[in-house]
Amino acid sequence: MVGLLGGALGLAVPIIFGALGGVIGERVGVVNIAIEGQLLAGAFSAAVVSSITGVPLAGMVAAMVAGMLVALVLSVFAITYYVNQVIVGVVLNVLVIGVTSFLFSQVLAPNTALLNSPTRFQTLPIPVLGDIPLIGPIFFRQTLVVYIMYIAVFLVWWGMFRTKWGLRLRAVGEHPQAADTVGIKVAATRYWNMLLAGAIAGIGGSFFTLVSVPAFNREMTAGAGFIALAAVIFGKWDPIRATLAALLFGFASNLQGILGVIGSPVPSQFMLMLPYLVTIFAVAGLVGRSRPPAASGIPYEKQ
Questions:
Q1: Which residue in 60, 94, 120, 172 has the fewest CB atoms around it within 10 Å?
Q2: Is the pLDDT of residue 166 over 90?
Q3: What is the pTM assigned to this prediction?
């Protein structure tokens, strides 16, 4: 049970970071389709910087910067030039995949010892909490990235629904014209929050190379950004619910792997597709009402 739940948490960590970035983006009115690109850019940057410096924390900071750069490009086209956000996001994902794959084959592969051998975060058990039966080994014998995730989930939820920042963010995502009339700078609010979303997603990308796998590989995120988008929708654009949805995806992914190993008669693929089926039902309105922010994906042109 500890292995099953602990593995599920590990698989869900980058999805949770990506989902938080997606929630912030859509709540402020920008569909963050480029989560996949932000995760992949973060994984690549973290691997290179951690390999050069030998400091995993420096790799995490580099991953945040890489995620912010991808988010900045998306923001420029979506907010300033009113380009279709979905198209820009898809193009950015393909661009990041192409650039990182090229750099991997041309730069990282020939210089693996120098550029693709990152120093990883070590497990940091929390005293007392880590000794709690069942819960302790799963939640409190983790790395710094996982503990940052706990804090990030709480801060995003608390900030979004309990602070002036969150009120302005939600106002811009629901009715930007009304927000503009009361003095809120819509474009600036969207820019800063998209950069924040990119930084959070970048931390999720660093998990791949600084915790999970000790090297960068082509397309190693394996669609985690798109799963994060599904978690955002399934979680109804709420940070806590999106986190729970991401945990469900992680649990299903880990369970299907274990079922395949033990030779269970239940097809492992059936367990893997369950969260996606539930997401489809949620979007279709069959599992409660799922309504995105009113201005999500709609460029705002000041009159």
A1: 94
A2: yes
A3: 0.93
